[in-house]
Amino acid sequence: MNKSKKNKFGLLPETSKPFGYVADLTGRNLARVHRQIASEYVKCRCNHPSVVGAVLIGGTARGFSDEYSDIDVVIFYDGDGTGIATSGEQTWSGHDFDVTVVDYRYALKTLWTMTQRWSYLGAEVLCDTAGKIKRLLKKKITFPAEERKNIIVTSIIQLSWYGIGLKHGIWRGCNFRQIPRMWLHRGDVGSAHRRLTLATETLLDLLFAYNHALNPGEKWKLHVVHFLPWLPIHFRRRINQVILVKQITAQDFERRLKNFMLAYRAIMKRIQGDHLLPRDIYHHMLSHSGYYQKTSI
Protein backbone atom coordinates (compact mmCIF):
# COMPACT_ATOMS: atom_id res chain seq x y z
CA MET A 1 0.00 0.00 0.00
CA ASN A 2 1.35 3.43 -0.97
CA LYS A 3 0.24 5.08 2.27
CA SER A 4 2.52 8.07 1.79
CA LYS A 5 0.73 8.97 -1.42
CA LYS A 6 -2.72 9.55 0.08
CA ASN A 7 -4.05 13.03 0.75
CA LYS A 8 -7.25 14.74 1.80
CA PHE A 9 -8.60 14.74 -1.76
CA GLY A 10 -8.53 10.95 -1.98
CA LEU A 11 -11.06 9.89 0.63
CA LEU A 12 -14.20 8.29 -0.69
CA PRO A 13 -17.25 7.76 1.54
CA GLU A 14 -17.78 4.54 3.46
CA THR A 15 -19.07 2.83 0.33
CA SER A 16 -15.53 2.36 -0.88
CA LYS A 17 -11.95 2.29 0.30
CA PRO A 18 -9.74 5.38 0.34
CA PHE A 19 -7.77 6.34 -2.72
CA GLY A 20 -5.72 9.42 -3.38
CA TYR A 21 -2.70 10.96 -4.97
CA VAL A 22 -0.59 14.04 -4.68
CA ALA A 23 0.54 15.94 -7.73
CA ASP A 24 4.13 15.14 -8.69
CA LEU A 25 4.08 17.35 -11.74
CA THR A 26 6.86 19.80 -12.46
CA GLY A 27 6.72 23.46 -13.38
CA ARG A 28 5.45 26.51 -11.56
CA ASN A 29 2.49 25.54 -9.41
CA LEU A 30 -0.13 28.29 -9.51
CA ALA A 31 -2.78 26.43 -7.49
CA ARG A 32 -2.65 28.85 -4.57
CA VAL A 33 -3.03 31.87 -6.86
CA HIS A 34 -5.82 30.25 -8.86
CA ARG A 35 -7.65 29.22 -5.70
CA GLN A 36 -7.65 32.82 -4.47
CA ILE A 37 -8.89 34.12 -7.80
CA ALA A 38 -11.63 31.46 -7.80
CA SER A 39 -12.77 32.55 -4.33
CA GLU A 40 -13.00 36.14 -5.48
CA TYR A 41 -14.96 35.09 -8.57
CA VAL A 42 -17.43 33.07 -6.52
CA LYS A 43 -17.99 35.95 -4.07
CA CYS A 44 -19.28 37.98 -6.98
CA ARG A 45 -21.74 35.23 -7.93
CA CYS A 46 -22.98 33.87 -4.57
CA ASN A 47 -24.95 37.02 -3.77
CA HIS A 48 -27.55 35.98 -6.36
CA PRO A 49 -30.69 34.80 -4.50
CA SER A 50 -30.88 31.52 -6.42
CA VAL A 51 -27.29 30.42 -5.78
CA VAL A 52 -27.01 27.67 -3.18
CA GLY A 53 -23.31 27.04 -3.54
CA ALA A 54 -20.19 26.81 -5.66
CA VAL A 55 -17.26 24.44 -5.82
CA LEU A 56 -13.77 24.50 -7.25
CA ILE A 57 -12.77 21.38 -9.16
CA GLY A 58 -9.96 20.43 -11.53
CA GLY A 59 -6.24 20.62 -10.97
CA THR A 60 -6.46 23.73 -8.77
CA ALA A 61 -8.64 21.91 -6.24
CA ARG A 62 -6.40 18.84 -6.33
CA GLY A 63 -3.29 20.90 -5.64
CA PHE A 64 -1.61 21.60 -8.97
CA SER A 65 -2.36 24.04 -11.77
CA ASP A 66 -0.03 25.92 -14.05
CA GLU A 67 0.04 28.36 -16.95
CA TYR A 68 -1.80 25.82 -19.13
CA SER A 69 -4.66 25.36 -16.67
CA ASP A 70 -7.97 27.11 -16.53
CA ILE A 71 -9.90 27.54 -13.28
CA ASP A 72 -12.82 25.14 -13.07
CA VAL A 73 -15.77 26.46 -11.06
CA VAL A 74 -19.24 24.96 -10.72
CA ILE A 75 -22.12 27.13 -9.50
CA PHE A 76 -25.30 25.46 -8.24
CA TYR A 77 -28.62 27.27 -8.21
CA ASP A 78 -32.08 26.38 -6.92
CA GLY A 79 -34.86 28.31 -8.60
CA ASP A 80 -34.47 30.89 -11.32
CA GLY A 81 -30.89 30.83 -12.59
CA THR A 82 -31.29 33.89 -14.78
CA GLY A 83 -28.50 36.40 -14.33
CA ILE A 84 -26.09 34.20 -12.36
CA ALA A 85 -23.44 33.50 -14.97
CA THR A 86 -23.09 31.70 -18.25
CA SER A 87 -21.58 28.26 -18.60
CA GLY A 88 -18.47 27.87 -20.68
CA GLU A 89 -14.97 29.23 -21.05
CA GLN A 90 -14.50 32.86 -20.09
CA THR A 91 -11.91 35.32 -18.84
CA TRP A 92 -12.29 37.07 -15.51
CA SER A 93 -9.73 39.35 -13.89
CA GLY A 94 -7.19 38.26 -16.47
CA HIS A 95 -7.57 34.54 -15.75
CA ASP A 96 -9.12 31.76 -17.80
CA PHE A 97 -12.17 30.14 -16.26
CA ASP A 98 -14.27 27.15 -17.24
CA VAL A 99 -17.59 27.80 -15.54
CA THR A 100 -20.47 25.34 -15.24
CA VAL A 101 -23.85 26.53 -13.96
CA VAL A 102 -25.95 23.62 -12.68
CA ASP A 103 -29.54 23.26 -11.53
CA TYR A 104 -29.18 21.88 -7.99
CA ARG A 105 -32.41 19.86 -8.10
CA TYR A 106 -31.41 18.32 -11.42
CA ALA A 107 -27.99 17.39 -10.04
CA LEU A 108 -29.65 15.84 -7.01
CA LYS A 109 -31.92 13.50 -8.96
CA THR A 110 -29.64 12.45 -11.83
CA LEU A 111 -27.05 9.70 -11.90
CA TRP A 112 -23.48 10.97 -12.02
CA THR A 113 -21.03 9.35 -14.38
CA MET A 114 -17.75 7.89 -13.17
CA THR A 115 -15.82 10.87 -14.55
CA GLN A 116 -18.18 13.33 -12.85
CA ARG A 117 -17.76 11.61 -9.51
CA TRP A 118 -13.98 11.60 -9.86
CA SER A 119 -13.98 15.30 -10.78
CA TYR A 120 -15.98 16.20 -7.68
CA LEU A 121 -14.00 13.84 -5.44
CA GLY A 122 -11.35 16.51 -5.03
CA ALA A 123 -13.79 19.43 -5.04
CA GLU A 124 -13.25 22.37 -2.71
CA VAL A 125 -16.51 23.93 -1.55
CA LEU A 126 -16.19 27.70 -1.90
CA CYS A 127 -19.78 28.62 -1.10
CA ASP A 128 -22.53 26.59 0.58
CA THR A 129 -25.37 28.75 1.86
CA ALA A 130 -27.36 25.99 3.57
CA GLY A 131 -25.07 22.96 3.57
CA LYS A 132 -26.77 21.62 0.45
CA ILE A 133 -23.58 21.23 -1.55
CA LYS A 134 -21.78 19.14 1.05
CA ARG A 135 -24.83 16.88 1.33
CA LEU A 136 -25.03 16.62 -2.46
CA LEU A 137 -21.39 15.58 -2.80
CA LYS A 138 -21.68 13.08 0.04
CA LYS A 139 -24.67 11.48 -1.64
CA LYS A 140 -23.25 11.39 -5.16
CA ILE A 141 -19.57 10.60 -4.73
CA THR A 142 -19.81 6.87 -4.14
CA PHE A 143 -18.46 3.72 -5.71
CA PRO A 144 -20.83 0.86 -4.76
CA ALA A 145 -19.45 -2.66 -4.54
CA GLU A 146 -21.82 -3.92 -7.24
CA GLU A 147 -20.65 -1.27 -9.70
CA ARG A 148 -17.05 -2.16 -8.95
CA LYS A 149 -17.77 -5.84 -9.58
CA ASN A 150 -19.50 -5.07 -12.87
CA ILE A 151 -16.53 -3.03 -14.10
CA ILE A 152 -14.10 -5.81 -13.19
CA VAL A 153 -16.17 -8.43 -14.99
CA THR A 154 -16.79 -6.25 -18.04
CA SER A 155 -13.10 -5.34 -18.30
CA ILE A 156 -12.03 -9.00 -18.24
CA ILE A 157 -14.53 -9.87 -20.97
CA GLN A 158 -13.51 -6.82 -22.99
CA LEU A 159 -9.90 -7.98 -22.80
CA SER A 160 -10.98 -11.39 -24.06
CA TRP A 161 -12.30 -9.66 -27.19
CA TYR A 162 -8.79 -8.29 -27.67
CA GLY A 163 -7.41 -11.79 -27.33
CA ILE A 164 -6.18 -11.31 -23.76
CA GLY A 165 -6.87 -14.05 -21.24
CA LEU A 166 -5.23 -16.22 -18.63
CA LYS A 167 -5.87 -19.30 -20.72
CA HIS A 168 -7.29 -20.31 -24.08
CA GLY A 169 -10.80 -21.76 -24.05
CA ILE A 170 -13.76 -21.62 -21.67
CA TRP A 171 -13.04 -20.00 -18.30
CA ARG A 172 -15.75 -18.97 -15.85
CA GLY A 173 -18.38 -19.15 -18.57
CA CYS A 174 -16.50 -16.95 -21.05
CA ASN A 175 -14.95 -18.29 -24.23
CA PHE A 176 -11.40 -16.98 -24.53
CA ARG A 177 -11.01 -18.26 -28.07
CA GLN A 178 -9.30 -15.24 -29.61
CA ILE A 179 -5.56 -14.84 -29.29
CA PRO A 180 -3.52 -11.62 -28.98
CA ARG A 181 -1.50 -12.50 -32.09
CA MET A 182 -4.56 -12.90 -34.29
CA TRP A 183 -3.75 -9.85 -36.42
CA LEU A 184 -0.16 -10.99 -36.79
CA HIS A 185 -1.47 -14.23 -38.26
CA ARG A 186 -3.67 -12.18 -40.59
CA GLY A 187 -0.65 -10.23 -41.78
CA ASP A 188 -1.71 -6.84 -40.37
CA VAL A 189 0.95 -5.85 -37.82
CA GLY A 190 -0.42 -2.33 -37.42
CA SER A 191 -3.80 -3.64 -36.30
CA ALA A 192 -2.07 -5.96 -33.82
CA HIS A 193 -0.36 -2.97 -32.22
CA ARG A 194 -3.57 -0.94 -32.28
CA ARG A 195 -5.49 -3.73 -30.59
CA LEU A 196 -2.92 -3.97 -27.81
CA THR A 197 -3.12 -0.20 -27.30
CA LEU A 198 -6.90 -0.43 -26.88
CA ALA A 199 -6.47 -3.35 -24.48
CA THR A 200 -4.14 -1.20 -22.38
CA GLU A 201 -6.95 1.29 -21.73
CA THR A 202 -9.12 -1.58 -20.47
CA LEU A 203 -6.27 -2.88 -18.31
CA LEU A 204 -6.09 0.50 -16.57
CA ASP A 205 -9.88 0.45 -16.05
CA LEU A 206 -9.50 -2.96 -14.41
CA LEU A 207 -6.74 -1.70 -12.14
CA PHE A 208 -8.76 1.30 -10.98
CA ALA A 209 -11.77 -0.88 -10.18
CA TYR A 210 -9.68 -3.41 -8.27
CA ASN A 211 -8.37 -0.56 -6.11
CA HIS A 212 -11.91 0.68 -5.28
CA ALA A 213 -10.92 3.85 -7.12
CA LEU A 214 -13.05 6.11 -9.27
CA ASN A 215 -11.69 6.28 -12.81
CA PRO A 216 -10.68 9.80 -13.91
CA GLY A 217 -11.26 9.11 -17.60
CA GLU A 218 -8.90 9.45 -20.53
CA LYS A 219 -7.33 12.82 -19.72
CA TRP A 220 -5.84 11.90 -16.36
CA LYS A 221 -5.97 8.11 -16.33
CA LEU A 222 -2.34 7.27 -17.06
CA HIS A 223 -0.97 9.90 -14.69
CA VAL A 224 -3.27 9.04 -11.79
CA VAL A 225 -2.93 5.26 -12.08
CA HIS A 226 0.57 5.39 -10.58
CA PHE A 227 -0.89 6.66 -7.29
CA LEU A 228 -3.28 3.78 -6.72
CA PRO A 229 -2.94 2.03 -3.34
CA TRP A 230 -1.90 -1.25 -4.98
CA LEU A 231 0.04 -1.78 -8.20
CA PRO A 232 1.74 -4.83 -9.69
CA ILE A 233 5.46 -4.97 -9.10
CA HIS A 234 7.46 -2.82 -11.55
CA PHE A 235 4.19 -1.49 -12.93
CA ARG A 236 5.46 1.90 -14.07
CA ARG A 237 8.31 0.32 -16.02
CA ARG A 238 6.08 -2.30 -17.57
CA ILE A 239 3.25 0.00 -18.57
CA ASN A 240 5.77 2.37 -20.15
CA GLN A 241 7.06 -0.56 -22.20
CA VAL A 242 3.49 -1.39 -23.22
CA ILE A 243 2.62 2.09 -24.45
CA LEU A 244 5.97 2.52 -26.18
CA VAL A 245 5.84 1.59 -29.86
CA LYS A 246 9.34 1.52 -31.30
CA GLN A 247 8.48 -0.02 -34.65
CA ILE A 248 5.41 -1.48 -36.30
CA THR A 249 6.90 -4.97 -36.32
CA ALA A 250 5.98 -8.37 -34.93
CA GLN A 251 9.07 -8.31 -32.73
CA ASP A 252 8.09 -5.01 -31.12
CA PHE A 253 4.56 -6.28 -30.62
CA GLU A 254 5.93 -9.29 -28.74
CA ARG A 255 7.94 -6.98 -26.47
CA ARG A 256 4.83 -4.94 -25.65
CA LEU A 257 2.69 -8.03 -25.17
CA LYS A 258 5.18 -9.62 -22.77
CA ASN A 259 5.08 -6.59 -20.48
CA PHE A 260 1.29 -6.36 -20.78
CA MET A 261 0.79 -9.98 -19.72
CA LEU A 262 3.13 -9.64 -16.73
CA ALA A 263 0.97 -6.79 -15.41
CA TYR A 264 -2.31 -8.48 -16.33
CA ARG A 265 -1.46 -11.78 -14.64
CA ALA A 266 -0.45 -9.95 -11.46
CA ILE A 267 -3.77 -8.06 -11.38
CA MET A 268 -5.80 -11.20 -12.05
CA LYS A 269 -3.95 -13.08 -9.31
CA ARG A 270 -5.07 -10.42 -6.84
CA ILE A 271 -8.65 -10.40 -8.15
CA GLN A 272 -8.95 -14.16 -7.88
CA GLY A 273 -7.23 -14.22 -4.52
CA ASP A 274 -9.79 -11.75 -3.18
CA HIS A 275 -12.66 -13.88 -4.62
CA LEU A 276 -14.13 -10.95 -6.56
CA LEU A 277 -15.39 -12.88 -9.57
CA PRO A 278 -18.74 -14.65 -9.98
CA ARG A 279 -18.64 -18.29 -11.08
CA ASP A 280 -19.94 -17.36 -14.53
CA ILE A 281 -18.60 -13.97 -15.58
CA TYR A 282 -20.25 -14.04 -18.99
CA HIS A 283 -23.71 -14.64 -17.53
CA HIS A 284 -23.04 -11.90 -14.98
CA MET A 285 -22.22 -9.45 -17.76
CA LEU A 286 -25.34 -10.36 -19.73
CA SER A 287 -27.58 -9.96 -16.69
CA HIS A 288 -26.08 -6.59 -15.68
CA SER A 289 -25.56 -4.98 -19.08
CA GLY A 290 -28.09 -2.42 -20.25
CA TYR A 291 -27.00 -3.11 -23.82
CA TYR A 292 -27.78 -6.83 -23.72
CA GLN A 293 -30.95 -6.39 -21.69
CA LYS A 294 -32.56 -4.32 -24.44
CA THR A 295 -34.86 -6.14 -26.82
CA SER A 296 -33.26 -6.38 -30.24
CA ILE A 297 -34.92 -6.97 -33.61
How does this structure look, described?
This protein is α+β, with helices and mostly antiparallel strands. It folds into two domains: 138 residues, Beta Polymerase, domain 2 (2-Layer Sandwich); 149 residues, no CATH class. Helices cover 46% and strands 13% of the residues. It has 13 helices and seven strands. The chain is elongated and about 65 Å long.
Strand content: 5-15%
- Low-confidence segments, given as residue ranges, are 1-20
- Arithmetic mean pLDDT: 87
What gross morphology would you assign?
A: elongated
What is the number of helices? 13
Give the domain tally: 2
Q: Compute the number of strand runs.
A: 7
What is the helix/strand order?
HEHEEEHHEHHEEHHHHHHH
- Distance between the first and last residues' Cα: 49 Å
What is the percent of helical residues? 40-55%
Q: How can the largest sheet be summarized?
A: 5 strands, mixed
Structural class, from secondary structure content?
alpha+beta
Strand order of the largest sheet: 3-4-2-1-5
- Cα Rg: 22 Å
Distinctive features:
297 residues; alpha+beta; Beta Polymerase, domain 2; 2 domains; five-stranded mixed sheet; two-stranded antiparallel ribbon; 13 helices; disordered N terminus
